[in-house]
Amino acid sequence: MTRLLAAGLGLFALVLVPLTALAQATQEDPAWQAVLNKAKGQTVYFHAWGGEPRINAYIQWAAREVARDYDVRVIHVKVSDTATVVSQVLAEKSVGKASGGAVDLIWINGENFASMKENALLAAPGWVETLPNWAYVDVENKPTVLVDFTVPTDGQESPWGMAKLVFMHDSARLETPPASLDELLAYATANPGRFAYPQPPNFYGTTFLKQVLAGTVANAELLSKPVDETKFEEAVAPLFAYLDKLHPALWREGQAFPKNASHMRQLLADGELDIAFSFNPGDASGAIANGELPPTVRTFVFEGGTIGNTHFVAIPFNSSAQEGAQVFANFLLSPMAQTRKQEPEIWGDPTVLDVAGLPANEKALFDAMDLGPATLSPEDLGPVLPEPHPSWVKALEEAWVQRYGAE
Amino acid sequence: MPSEVDRLSQATGFRLDAPTILVTMLLAGPVLAGLAGTALPAFGFLPVLGYEQFSLAPFQQLIETPGLATSALLSLTTGLTASLISLAIVLGFTAGWSGTKTFQRLTRFLSPLLSVPHAAAAIGLAFLIAPSGFLVRLVSPWATGWSRPPDLLILNDPYGVAMTVGLVAKEVPFLFLMTLAALNRPRTQDFFKAGAGLGYGRMATFFKIVLPQIYPMIRLPMLAVVAYSTSVVDVATILGPTTPPPLAPRLVSWMNDPDLAKRLMASAGALLQLAVTVSALVIYLCLEKLARALAHRQYQSGSRFRQENFSRLGTLLPMLLIIIVMVLSLCLLAIWSAARSWWFPAVLPQAWSLSKMIEAIQMGSGSLVATLLLALVSALLATALTLWLLEARSHRNLAVTNRLKSYIFLPLLVPQIAFLFGLQMLFLVFGMSGTFLAVLVSHLIFVFPYAFLALSDPWGQLDPRYARAARSIGVSRAKVFWKIQLPLLLRPVLVTLAVAAAVSVGQYLPTLMIGAGRIVTITTESVALASGGSRQFAALYALLQLIVPLIGFLLAALVPSLVHRNRAAMRLEK
Q1: HEC states along B474-500?
Q2: Are A238 and A250 in the same domain?
Q3: What's the burial of B332, exposed, middle or buried (CB within 10 Å: 0-12/13-18/19+)?
Q4: Cα separation of A99 and A89, whole Å?
């Protein structure tokens, strides 16, 4: 009850005070001020994927900022797979460690979030709405900031960035990229060995399966609900019919697969692949700026739209620095942190904020940004296909392994 | 006589000294506790998740997993094949060339190669042999006509050939060093002379006279190699097949599956992994028996095999090839770490950049310090413990029995993943998870057996008469140790320290699982980066993994020759 009251008060204060004076507003919000006071001197262990030096550098920058401004120490614990963090929190729960856990904040989305929520491994709902910068989040046009893979976030994870499936091609080798799934199949068949997708259960591999599923399923409504086992085979039949045709033309004839999106990007740079894909629309521009992709690489999407979602940060139930984690999550939502993140050389990750609704100064930061040569404008990014319910992930992955993963 | 004393002490259980008990508890304790922690969930018992009834359901689920048999078979065959090939290469080369200048020269290359961590070697090898890798670039497009990389299944092939090659390249230096240590005993040279005197060829002398003497000393290392190769995770992840993968990497992914119920199945799988490794060990022991029986006939035949030039060449080639491949792989890592852009088919990078290197080292300085500290402390502790144990036992006239050895080797003979999960739970219960101390202990479990491996034979070969003579004129036990035994063993002790440090640096799973991700080493960073997109960073961190052990081996090679520069007899490897 007090929490709700505090949240309400916080929001109320935000509405009253002009947004330009936000800094003062946060100081006048007693509930948030209490959080800031408690956070002082805390150390936040932020468990986040550590495979991308650019992202690691961004996290280091953010950590320096909150250390200076709020006296919160953030340590990036670099993980190779977020699922390991879920396992770790579970292990702590299993020995009755209800506080003082090793994980204070996790970079998370979709399946892992659903799993943590289901097993009550997350901090109590509602903390996200108490963050002062929550006011800027675009809840209207970006519904995925509230619903992660059809699972309501309930204020248990704070949005960090937007993801949308985009394809990349080297325009020097492939001028007009395929505009649909059918054209992709035709291209792959005509140029065997030049297309691949990461092997499910890799996140990107599964995303490709979802994209094909969304493009082939007869009744799209099925996807927003938990998997109905009786209808599953029928729903995925067109998907696997498509893959059956695609696989003989895949890279290495589908006997080996790229490990993840980064590996696929490397193979594109090596000239082994003609088409790769990413969940970050600014990825190609960033990689070009860093010399990791040839300057001729460009981005494209399918006409019918591609899968999109939001990635978040969440606090485990037994975090030993709850307040510090909230302060950091709030900082990550700030217009300054969000613009910086969207710069292609820095990360290229699209913002979760409502740019049009930002105060003039902050809006100018976004407007002035050069998204880089290979990034599609928001208009060209095309429609967003929603993520299916998380239960589809497991079912799809198992069906895939059954067919292609174990000969 | 000592063997009688031994038998007595074993039968009665008396005369176990403090160091033996401590070491046994330190090693066997965690393994057994960890195994129990794994076995319970395998039989359906994991109360947190609401599984409180014992059942066989996890095994049922495991058996129904598609491709399980293939995975288990892959682990068994790649691991065994790699181990046997490695042994054959090492023994063949030693037989054909030991005592020659060539042998000495190649030894200089092989010993430091031991320090290359598995993950780094695998990353380097992948850069070398991939269809868009260095070897193809070297001949493209002028010789092959390939302006684009060919679509060839060289890495991650379904039969695990690339993975086997990677394992061989890594195990050969290890087995070679162990063989070298076994050869470094005073009488071995006499065996060679005796063989030559009887008119046996060089290789026949080795196989008929020398090998039977030294094989007991290579045996445990060889068993450790078999156990390791059948349950390896990092090499399998980088070079191994994926449709389906070998058992060990599959286990890791099940243990990390967001579907938490898969934990039970993973635990059942860990027991299957244990069975696979035990089967491999049993098969190896049977092969050993077979070889012994066959060899026996050869001993009696009296054939002297004097025409051996051809076979000697045959033993040199694979060894040379391994050295060339490893050195090339490492050079590639070095080039990649300074390369900004390097598109196919360019033989060298189009754009270089050192700024990333500096950035990476700045970002990685914390993990470098942690790596160094862990390596140093665990190497020193393991070596000191080994010396303490050996000194105490020889003081009491207790030989190093096979039972003791098998306790010490337990952590190397049981697949890591089979007990690490349970061990993680144990540390959590004691509130030690994620502390430096817990990680240090978990490293020691794996570092100590290697230290013991490296040091127990040199200690055993120490002529006891020095100590006895000194004691007889009233020198204290401590003084004998510091003034006589330790100086005589300076070189093996330093090599032990280097080996121990290298083993500590290479630990990935224990650091990750016991360290709760908070203790970050170059190796955990390197594996995290290997899943990302920057080859430059991946290569750089793979190289950084090398630096600590390399310094160790350099010191181990340099210090004795400096300290003993005026004592010809103390300079080994004549």
Answers
A1: CCCHHHHHHHHHHHHCHHHHHHHHHHH
A2: yes
A3: buried
A4: 11
Q: State the average pLDDT over residues B486-505.
A: 90
pLDDT of residue A129: 95
Q: Is residue A172 part of a domain?
A: yes
Neighbours of A218 (CB within 10 A): 9
Contact A311, A337 (CB under 8 A): no
pLDDT on residue A404: 93
Is residue A224 located within the same domain as residue A119?
A: no
CA–CA separation, B117 and B113 (whole Å): 9
A1 pLDDT higher than 70: no
What domain range is A45 assigned to?
Answer: 2-162+310-368
Is the minimum CB–CB distance between B149 and chain A shorter than 8 Å? yes
Residues 6+ apart with CB under 8 A from B264: B41, B42, B44, B46, B49, B51, B57, B58, B61
3-state secondary structure of A395: helix
> What phi and psi, each to the nearest 5 degrees, are found at residue A308?
-140, 155
Torsion of CA A389, A392, A397, A402, to 10 degrees: 180
CA quadruple B337, B343, B348, B353: dihedral sign: negative
User: Cβ contact (<8 Å) for A50 and B425?
Assistant: no
Under the banding of pLDDT at 50, 70 and 90, the label for residue A14 is very low
Gap between the Cα atoms of B309 and B315, Å rounded: 10
- In terms of domains, do A330 and A295 share one? no
* pLDDT over 50 at B5, yes or no: no
- Residue A73: which residues within 8 A CB-CB, separation 6 or more? A41, A42, A43, A44, A63, A67, A324
Number of structural domains, chain A? 2
Question: Searching chain B, which residue's CA lies closest to the CA of residue A278?
Answer: B533
Phi, psi of A196, deg, nearest 5: -155, 160
B349-375 average pLDDT score: 87
Model pLDDT, residue B177 = 84
Residue B547 tokens read as 């630096």
Q: Would you state the torsion angle of the CA atoms of residues A115, A117, A122, A125, taken in this order, to the nearest 10 degrees?
A: 160
Q: Does some domain include residue A327?
A: yes
Q: Is there a single domain that holds both residue A153 and residue A58?
A: yes
CA-wise closest residue to B131 among B348, B344, B347, B327: B344
CATH of the domain at A109: 3.40.190.10
What's the rounded Cα separation, in Å, for the pair B116 and B553?
Answer: 11
Q: Which residue of A has its CA nearest to B517?
A: A77
Rounded Cα distance, B493 and B454, in Å: 8
Gap between the Cα atoms of A191 and A309, Å rounded = 31
Q: Does B457 touch chain A (CB under 8 A)?
A: no
Cβ A39 vs Cβ A323: under 8 Å? yes
Return the pLDDT at B531.
62
Structure tokens at B431: 């509130």
Same domain, A182 and A265: yes
Whether residues A272 and B343 touch (CB distance < 8 A) is answered with no
Q: Is residue A374 part of a domain?
A: no
Nearest-CA neighbor of B64 among A11, A151, A306, A401? A401
Is a pLDDT exceeding 90 seen at residue A400? yes
Helix (H) or strand (E) holding A300: strand A297-300
ipTM of the complex in this document: 0.84
The residue among B129, B136, B242 with the most chain A CBs within 10 A of its CB, best to mutate, is B242
Cβ neighbourhood burial of B278 (10 Å; 0-12, 13-18, 19+)? middle
pLDDT over 80 (residue A39): yes
**What span, in angstroms and rounded, lies between the C-alpha atoms of A269 and A265?**
6
Tell me the pLDDT tens digit for each residue of A96-120: 888 988 899 999 988 899 999 998 9
Taking contacts as CB-CB distances below 8 angstroms, the residues of chain A near B71 are 406
Residues A184 and A149 in one domain: no
pLDDT at B458 over 90: no
Give all strands (DSSP E) within B367-495, no chain letters.
none
